[in-house]
Prior knowledge:
Elements: E1 8-14, H1 15-18, H2 20-24, H3 29-32, E2 35-41, E3 90-92, H4 94-97, E4 119-120, E5 123-124, E6 134-135, E7 138-139, E8 149-152, E9 158-170, E10 172-173, E11 176-177, E12 188-195, E13 201-202, E14 206-207, H5 214-226, H6 234-249, E15 252-258, E16 268-278, E17 297-304, H7 315-325, E18 341-342
Parallel strand pairs: 1-18, 3-8, 9-16
Antiparallel strand pairs: 1-2, 4-5, 6-7, 9-12, 9-14, 10-11, 12-13, 12-17, 15-16
Amino acid sequence: MSGGVYVSVCVWVGLDTLGVHDCVTSQEGDMRSVARVLCQTHLLTSTTLSMHTKCRGGAYPFTKDKVQRVQIPDSKVDWDVEFAEYLPPCYTAPHILAAPPYADPEIGAAGFKPRWNALDGRVSRCSHVKPYDVVDGFPRNVCGRTGVAGRGALGRWGPNHAADPIVTRWKVADGKAVIHEKTRKPILQFVCIQRRDSGHWAIPGGMVDPGERVTTTLQREFLEEALNSLEMTEKQKEKSEKQLKELFKGGVEIYSGYVDDPRNTDNAWMETVAFNFHQDDLQGVLYSMLLHAGDDAKAVKWQDISSTLNLYASHEDMIEKVAHRHQAHWSRNLAVLPTCVEDPGGPSSN
Ligand code: BGC
């Protein structure tokens, strides 16, 4: 890996060319046919593995330091690199072994015959990244070794699919957009929640339920976590949904793929599809709507976007893409602004 750098490349793709992506959003007929520019992080080359760092090394989350990951040097993350002495501890959290409805049974359990790399009934076991290997009956993390086997705190073997709504507006003072004094660019704000499980600030995303459309998950999670719809009356909920209808019609996909989530293991990992829902109107509904944390969120706020953000998993990377998409303020240090190069095509562009 070249000094911990990963490469961001703008690629022209039609969703149909992504293949595996189709599997997850196969019901999203309205979005599939549209070719568009996705600014994607290439995960499959050795220069990209720095993406896979928060789920390597140290203690596994929520285990009070009792489950320690095996240390893996950058050079040995890739499954294809020989690592004979690699013997990760196997850990699946007790609450997952207790078989909640969203979790798979253990591999080998009677009647559990998962269809890997496929739509398995209503559960998508496809990766957005690439078809994954299944070794001795266990799916292998698409981004390489993590230092712990089993499912950890994740319910599904293989990919666990989430969706992340990035709801943005311009920062306003006295009715005008606020311009950053150094970069001279307008400042964007997004709805940011504090996760109840880890305390990290994050995008208000959540898991895609079996058979659920990603567009439904995006809206549902936003309503539950940022507006506390679970505690609203039906009438209040209807009103909020109506207010947000236009905004949620105009979503733009920002990212789909692997997430460097601290819960990932060798056999279970997080993937997400992130959409940006942006309101340009400085007097639009997002300025009057009251945020109220609910469900898995313990706090919620409008957060100014800049490179100083420190968010859960890979959420900063997604927010950065949104800032660039709107030509908003990001970095105080103009010299480090990333450049997007047009992908020439060829074997490395998946
Ligand atoms: C969160 C998503 C996040 C995903 C991967 C889910 O628990 O709700 O916001 O992208 O995990 O880290």
